[in-house]
Amino acid sequence: MKPRISLKIEYLKQLQEERGISDAALASMASLNPSQIWRVKEGRCNPGPDFIAGLLNAFPDKNFDDLFFLAKPLQVCQGQDEQAAALDATGTE
Fold first, then answer.
1. Any idea what the Cα angle at residue 64 is, between residues 91 and 59, rounded to 5°?
2. Of 57 and 4, which is predicted with more confidence?
């Protein structure tokens, strides 16, 4: 598996809470569809280039490393698919 870019979900939620930004407002600020925000925050899909650029545009005081990280592929042992997926979705290793 290739490494992939993942969102620091909890950090984004904290940032939104501190600044009083709803998901709908964030979608507007980032020129994204609200469903894109929801899918990435729920760990259902990885952020694509438009999502990454949109978030960086919405938070000009933040840099890439503040909002995203490079998720290294995990070696999944038989029977541990769910555990690996759960760890990956939280943004922690």
1. 105
2. 57
